[in-house]
Write a structure and sequence with these properties.
Blueprint lengths: L1 E5 L2 E4 L4 E8 L6 E7 L6 E7 L5 E3 L7 E6 L4 E6 L8 E8 L14 E2 L3 E6 L1
Parallel strand pairs: 2-11
Antiparallel strand pairs: 1-3, 3-8, 4-5, 4-9, 5-6, 7-8, 9-10, 9-11
Length: 123
Amino acid sequence: VQLQASGGGLVQAGGSLSLSCAVSGRFSGTFMGWFRQAPGKEREFVSAIRWNGGFTYYADSVKGRFTISRDSAKKLVYLQMNGLKPEDTAVYYCASTNGVTSSLRDPAMYTRWGQGTLVTVSS
């Protein structure tokens, strides 16, 4: 299984971007997640979605601004980001896990990672 993230770019504060993560190969994960890592900071959880059922989870910092969704047939996961802030600037990664809900925010629980896509929000 390979994950390919795309859609990053440069946007002004208050703007929007939509990230995509394409899953190739036979996907057997339970959750798909988005993480981000800003320069000099640890990788942090952004959002996750249960592949079957579509239940969604968000970090408090993005709740109400970001929306995660998936297209099971196309094996795509999206992260719609609205109301972007300069502090959202980071490399965004998609990842998959067979973990449980309580561990979704822990990047160590994710076994497959995409290559990352850079999101830059200017003030």
